[in-house]
Structure formats: structure tokens, C-alpha cells
Task: structure prediction
Amino acid sequence: METKLPYKWPFAPDILKRQYDALPPQHLLAFQSQFFDKMGPNMELRLFGNVGYMTTDPKNIEALLSTRFDGMAPAGRYQNLKVLDEHVNDLVTNLSSSSGIVDLQPAFFRFTLATTASTHLRLGDEDRDIFANSFDYASLICAICLRLADFHWAYTPSKFTKACGIANEYANHFVKQALKDKEDNEAQAASGRYAFILDLYEELKDPALVRDQLVNVLIVGRDTTACLLSWTL
Result:
């Protein structure tokens, strides 16, 4: 790939710093879009000696998304879409009460995490706030560590370990609760309440793997959907 993301310092720590500054206010999309606007849809990124690629080319994206991922977990079933009503109404209310220029991406991040957590974890308002704060912080640090590549060990704040523990604790709780529901009641009745978790367990047969897949789904359900909504609008 001939087009390369420009940097000023050896091993590109200046790019890392600018991405770090863009992550907390959720301006990473705007930061990266400026390079696509100037340099085209495909470029190579070299960071600390590691090579990565960035693309907005529809053909490349289609090739990535059409790849067959063997071993992927089942998609699950949405059993009650009415749980989304509250979060849609909250999103519309918050946006309606805003004035001037509104940054939609943070609102979409809150919306998509709330809907995904409510659907798969059945969280109440207080628990959802605790989980969301821990999940957001853990995701932020993971995004920074991803860019550090082999040097990820150099940035592990104690708050990150605590946030990961809280997120995993909630996921573990609901995996155990779903399995207990299946044991105490009919499988069909339990599946109506915990369809996705029980589908995962049927496939994986390991509560720890189910927990990990559940957290992965929450990441995808929040980040991908929120970014798609932001990009579309």
C-alpha cells in the first residue's frame, strides 16, 4: 500500500498521542476522517514498528464483512423488543432538549450500551449505570493498549483492573442466573428470559467462555452500532 499515514517522530508516538487525546471525548472518528479526506480511502499505519491498515473503501469493507468466521457464537434471538422503548425515548428526549451543535456520538454510545445491556443482561437503572461507567472506562483503556501493541503492559492503571472486574462480575452473575433459571424451570421458559446466554451455553458448554462472549457482544453492540449511527447521520 503506497499511501502511509504521516507522522513526525520515530515510531509514530505523535500519532498515538493525538489518538489518545481524541479517545476520551469520543472524537476518534473525526480525527481519522481528516486523513481519509486528504489521502484517500486506504492507508498504511506504522506504530512502534507494527503495521496496520485503515480503510473506508466499500469493497475492502465488504471483503472483511463477508469473510467466514468459523467458530463464531450463535447470534441469539431478541425475545422482547419492548425493552428498547425506554432507551429510544430517553435518546429522543435528550436530543430534543439540546440546543446548538450537538455531538451525537456520545449519545449514541450511551443508547447502544443501554439497549444491549438491557436485552442481554436485564440490568436495572442503578446497575446499568455502574456497569456502563466501568465498561466505558475499560473500553477506553483497551483502545489505548491496542495502539501500544507489544508495549500494552506499560499502561495498566489500577482503575482499569477494577473496571474490568466489575464488568466481568456482572456478566458472570447473569450467566449463573440464566443457568440456574434453566435448571429450576423448564428450558423453554428460561430461554424466553435468557435466550442469548443459553444459546451460547449450548454451543460452548463453559460458563467462563459464555461470559467472555457476552462481554464481546456488548462491545460490538455498543461500539459498532453507535459508530454506524454517527457515520450515517
Observations:
- The radius of gyration is 20 Å.
- Strands lie at 42-47, 50-55.
- DSSP finds ten helices and two strands in the chain.
